[in-house]
Amino acid sequence: GDATAWYDASGDDSTARYCSATRNMDPARRLVRVWSLIRKAVPDDIPGIVALALEALREDAYEELIIDPQKVFHRVRECVTSAQNFAWVCEQDGRIVGGVGAIVYELPWYERKVASCVMFRCTAAGEGIQLIREFLRWARNRPVIKMIEFTLERNADPRIGLLLKRLGLKEALPVYIEVR
What we know:
Layout: E1 3-8, E2 17-25, E3 31-40, H1 46-59, H2 69-81, E4 86-92, E5 95-106, E6 113-122, H3 128-140, E7 145-150, H4 158-166
Parallel strand pairs: 6-7
Antiparallel strand pairs: 1-2, 2-3, 3-4, 4-5, 5-6
Helix pairs in contact: 1-2
């Protein structure tokens, strides 16, 4: 089907939003419009973001680790409410269907800071690209941030890694872990 999209930036980060409309067939075989809104997360979004984060964690869980929903809630709240951190969402029909969140912290041995993506999940086809682009735009426009870190889950769609490379990130560190 055909699709329309536009980007409306009224001047500052808090009001920038990406909107898209796509036509999809419903079971009755008539065209319907699905609107997506990509925007900065607000405290009212926290329950929806937590639900997405828990879904992502359960989908690719380490059997030996127990997911703590309270810790997930606190980390999401930190991303959403702290001015130094980052949280944007994708909303469709009033529901949060995607989100990206990052924590900014000091690099242990180097000057400046790192922006580490701690949560990325989008169930709306194609909209995750805009969430990733917003995160990268935000991080690259902050002089205090020296490094951007985006870690993918073990079973992540390989197209996400290809997109990250196309957007200028590089695959850098092999990570070895032991889960007990």
